[in-house]
Amino acid sequence: MNQQTTIGKSFSVSGIGLHSASPVNVTVKPAPAYTSYLFRRTDLNDFEIPAAPQYVSHVSYATTLMKSGVMLSTVEHLLSALYGCGVDNAIIEVDSLEIPILDGSSRQWVELIRQAGIVELPAQRPYLKVLKKVEVTEKNRKMSIEPADGFEITCEIDFNHPMIGLQQHEISFLVADYSREIAPARTFGFVEEIEMLKQNGLARGGSLENAIALTRDGFLNPEPLRFDDEFVRHKILDIIGDLALAGMPILGHVRASRSGHGLHTMLLSNLLRDREAWEVTTTSATTSD
Fold first, then answer.
1. pTM of the model
2. 261 noted as active-site residue
3. Which of the four, 58, 69, 89, 208, has the lowest number of CB atoms within 10 Å?
4. Are strands 188-190 and 212-214 parallel, antiparallel or unpaired?
5. Which residue is catalytic, options 19, 169, 253, 261?
6. DSSP 248
């Protein structure tokens, strides 16, 4: 499919913000071609914040957008679901300052998108084609993107915890099923850090219903892990959501080691700033035309 897409009909969901604990209602609506992803704060006279790198303001434990002082936090899981499902354009109405965390994954977003349906629009889909390798580093964290026929991610994480340790996972959008392989992976946090996070205004809405709560030698959740490597799969979910800020599907191979939201958005910004590193094309190896 080489046409731009949007959802077939609007859908709504309610929940709480992971960090703010604020109740929030979201309605995702169909949008015309070339809209990309556009957020509207309905509690602030429909103030619009495009999902674009220049509006990224904070990247501590979540990706926050800000325009003219108006903020919207934790956008990455919804953007990941839209990108992963192949939805190019959507208007997202929000009545609070944070997207709801739901169950800590993108699974419910994917289910809602599928129920709404995906429809083609009368415009060709543009792709951001990577032409040369771009790399960013920060201490022992590293991330790069290099030319590839499709969108691929190789991710590695390393946590000194018996449930995690060193995990690596790779996904290629040429063959992968995002909804099955990535969307169910939940966010996670360490119980010993929760008090510090709450003192800093973070994780106030966190619970066993929306995050994996890791103790020193296990985790508190009654539900078992959804994958043996659920933690690295969630990191890939976050990478997809943050790179969705490019505004179009990417043709490139991302390699990430111990990355976080800051490195994800730094890589995208550095890539876009280097005009020799990319071009916009309307042909993709993912299509047969």
1. 0.95
2. yes
3. 69
4. parallel
5. 261
6. S
